Amino acid sequence: METTSQTLNHAELQHGKVELLVSCTDLVDLDTFTASDPQCVLSIKQFGQWKEYGRTEAIVETLNPQFTDGFILDYNEEAPYQLLFAVYDIDSRSSDLRHHDYVGSVELSLSSLIKHGNKTTTTSRSLRVPGCPQARGWINITAEFVKETRSRALLHLGGTKLDKKGVFSMSKTDVYLQVCRSINSVDFHPIYKTEVVEKSQDPRWRPFELSVQKICNGDHDRAIRLSCWHSKRNGADELIGYADTTLGDIYKYQGKTCMMLDLMEPKKKSKKSYKNSGILKVLQFRLDMQHTLLDYVRGGCLIKMMFAIDFTASNGDMTEANCLHSITDIQDNQYVHAIKRMGNLLSHCALDQQFPAFGFGAKLDPSTPAVNHCFALNGSNSKPYVRGVQGVLDSYQAILPQLKFAGPSVLTPVLTKALQYARQTIPSQDNQCYHVLVIITDGVINDMDQAIDTIIEGSSLPLSILVLGVGPADFTTMEHLNLNSIGGHILKSHTNSAKAVRDNVHFAALRKQKYNMCANDTITREALATISKQLIEYMKARGISPNRPVLSKCNPMVNWMSDESSDVGDNVDGIDTSFMSTASMSVKKKRSHSLGPTCPTCGAAMEAGLASWVNVSDSMLAR
Asked: pTM value?
């Protein structure tokens, strides 16, 4: 069964991005006393194997879920994806799908979800278990071509005099707000859900941000629905009322008095005396440009990387082939693979190429019982810097035979060292910097509580912590570092009442893949996206926006790097860094917004006020 709406030209249908919104109806109930807690998992077939692409959120106790988290895929008409949508009943916080009940799945191609000539298509398929002909529910997939936009909307909403709900309608409501965007003239799909405000008829929810693409796919006249719900423990939430509007209508009230909308309950509309079920207020609204990590780097933000490598005994004997620190076959060394994979990816943004590199969990002197939990790989604790990713690899391979692996796995000293570096330079508008600590470890951390306390302490600093797991260990405990794996709640201390100011840590497991060399690509992309998000969140909270790239005259026959770093050139560890040249030039000078304009072609000075200068300014701002 398919429904379609909105036409699109053929050129747009051949290439682009497609957003998939998912809902389910009439799912089989796999729980004994309560309804299922469904979650949808999308996998893509790569080289004949299914590779997980992403997951929606899990919705508590419902057999008819509408997931707010969707999926965005690149679409190429000549090479369509083969997709597998699987629904699970989530029984615990574990991210391992083997710990949850399998509801059913459906396999189809991305091209089958798109009908030529239409921008939006909704497809319904039955969910089944292999070998069983009986349907276990229905899955509805709405595919829509994405209209690229970098605008984000900040919304702050509240309610007034909402209807009471609950037993005998005498109790105050536990109310949350749901934002939905229209699929067609009749159907709406939820894209965001606020927190629950308990026992209130006049709730005020926390401000939230959504991309304009998420709200209306760039169409400011597209209908959106704001609905208030009474939250119930059994999952059977009650509708209080809804109001339909558009982003364009809300925008008219920007900077003025708050916008008020009548909340209407369909079942009560027929009553003559009925006016509304409450008032919804748009207390604040603002449209902002959505910046990216590259915007900050081009504007001169210095990304400063640090590495920390686990040398504990759990890695095995380095002379044996199965050791994670194997020296018999360095090309099969999993730590080398992790350093190269993440280091080469992140070093695009680290212009100075000076990386402090540390190790932990080993004895530097085998004759002594002391275990060192934070030592420089180059042997100089006062100057632990190495040059580029290759410098990290050279120092790692040089010190490896000198170490005696010990234990336990303790992260707090390394994290404390990273906090010391992050405190040295506090970013400002004219002096932007951000630190990224990459920790590579093979198993469970023995000082997890202390490590979490240190991570929370660093959440107010310009620092992101990326923990990479290598080897076959069970990383279930480590996955709790990811906020998404614990329901989106902020990281909290286990020893005191401290809470993280923001999300500043991410864990990813890099598994050894013999047959699928691209299997870890998704993991590394997600890690980079998370760091980008954390940097932007930190900068935005302090009112720091990307600076405009400064153009300066440059001899095309000479390297854009300084003489001291001329050996790096336009290729760092096999990666083309020429696209970073604009940013590097802006770093070489102290930034000044009054700096005169220069021609982007020849570098000659231009007088302000010329028509050509206006064009140059516009082009730079659009980058």
From this structure: 0.65
